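Materials and Methods. Structural model of Enoyl reductase (ER) domain-containing protein. The 380-residue sequence of Enoyl reductase (ER) domain-containing protein from Mola mola was retrieved and submitted for structure prediction as follows.
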Amino acid sequence: MATAGKVIKCKAAVAWEPNKPLVIEEIEVAPPEANEIRIKIVATALCHTDLYHLLESMQPQGFPTVLGHEGAGIVESVGPGVSEYQQGDKVIPLFISQCRQCHFCKSPRSNQCVKAWAGIARHDAMAPPTSRFTCKGKELLQFVGTSTFSEYTVVNEMAVAKIDPMAPLDKVCLLGCGICTGYGAAVNTAKVEPGSTCAVFGLGAVGMAAVMGCKAAGAKRIIGIDINPEKFEKAKVFGATDFVNPKDHDKPISQVLIEMTKWGVDFSLECVGNVSVMRSALESCVQGYGVSVIVGWTDLRDIAIRPNQLISGRTWKGSTFGGFKGRDAVPQMVKVYMDKKLMLDEFITHHMTLDQINDAIELMKQITDFSTLQQIIMFR
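The predicted structure was written out as tokens:
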């Protein structure tokens, strides 16, 4: 391509400081260096984690930055040493790398990678130490190593999934975060069993994907918990069989679920990012063998539990990106979607342009605290 090897000037939504509107700027994107890939972003979605960094954690060392981590695009050029990818490939950037060489990558027990951005940078900045972005003479951070709120981005090859060239990028971009996160938490981390009873706390996009994963795993009863009753009809589309609104009860939600199921649920998934809800999800599980998975992201507060809740036999687990090893698993998830065995279109509620990014953020800010993500907003 004519741009290969050259600095590209393009449009990006820049977060100059926390808790302030994003600014559409012209930025410079340098060519990829060794083992890097420059990608033209075709579609991206707004995820609550972007808002968490901007509006909740508000760590000053994490700015200025280009947010966005749920995108898909086309390889524009590759740097020295890259052989697996070439110009024109359709790809999904990954916020969790897979180097395929470290002890985590070689283990089937984890999808972590010691070479990921979080392993070489201050985690509270949520970015690697350097980027290929500059604006007005200042280097911009690359959010979780992806920064898909830019028309072009440069990503290390170990954080890129090459996908089916026929895949619609404005749909499969959702597999870059939320859908894999919720779905995989059910099938990979919880290992939901056929005939089991599950509870999903928070019916945002991640929660809906968790519901979908529970159904795919063969769960008999899937209880959705959210304070917005309007979400239940949507949750039924993905496989929910019951709905509980905590506001309808004057007792702890864990007690409500135990009474509904006699002993408690076999599996619970917390898809909110709220430490109180995490505890409720654990306490909702049947003692002896219940499994509860923390899926929602937060790093602002400690969590507490009475030891006997675990001593009695419950298992408490955490899940990042649904336990998927991205370079290997995301192409397979794209195939499942292409085979019409996975819903993606149903998650999309708005189509907007990058220029409307602040309008999209305002839409998402209207969501209640109980739900991590009510809608996915697509930029094209």
